[in-house]
């Protein structure tokens, strides 16, 4: 599996992903908003987050570039709005990598099952690089 680039935006992700799709002449992007998630009564979604982009992806010349708005209230710095996404079909590998990367880092979301992955976690490593690790089904 490849390591994919993740670009973060502060409320203008939809505009950015549509722009890059035109520039690089890719397929029309599929865009998932935070409001498209199944509701969770333990974590009600703020109204200002409903239409923000949770995830979109473009294939640009053979490379996946993924896009997301930051969640309202999350820190955002222009120029540092990039992360890496690592996907694997090997669940043990995801767990091992997550545990190594979290050493000296900050876990943003512990490894857990989500509606899109059997094992997903998000962290910032000790060098400040944001990582999303995700089990990809067969």
Automatic annotation (TrEMBL):
SUPFAM superfamilies in the cross-refs: Glyoxalase/Bleomycin resistance protein/Dihydroxybiphenyl dioxygenase
Pfam families in UniProt: 3-dmu-9_3-mt
Lineage: superkingdom: Bacteria
Domain PhnB-like intervals: 6-133
Transmembrane segment boundaries: none
Coiled coil (residue ranges): none
Protein name per UniProt: VOC family protein
Species in which this protein is naturally found: Paenibacillus motobuensis
């Amino acid at each position: 599996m490849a390591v994919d680039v993740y670009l973060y935006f502060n409320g203008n992700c939809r505009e950015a992903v549509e722009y890059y799709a035109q520039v690089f002449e890719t397929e029309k992007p599929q865009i998932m908003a935070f409001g498209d998630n199944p509701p969770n009564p333990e974590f009600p979604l703020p109204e200002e987050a409903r239409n923000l982009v949770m995830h979109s992806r473009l294939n640009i010349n053979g490379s996946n570039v993924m896009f997301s708005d930051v969640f309202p209230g999350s820190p955002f710095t222009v120029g540092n709005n990039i992360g890496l996404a690592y996907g694997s079909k090997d669940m043990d590998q995801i767990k091992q990598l997550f545990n190594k990367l979290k050493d000296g880092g900050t876990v943003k979301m512990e490894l857990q099952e989500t509606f899109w992955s059997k094992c997903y976690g998000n962290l910032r490593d000790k060098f400040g690089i944001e990582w999303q690790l995700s089990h990809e089904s067969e």
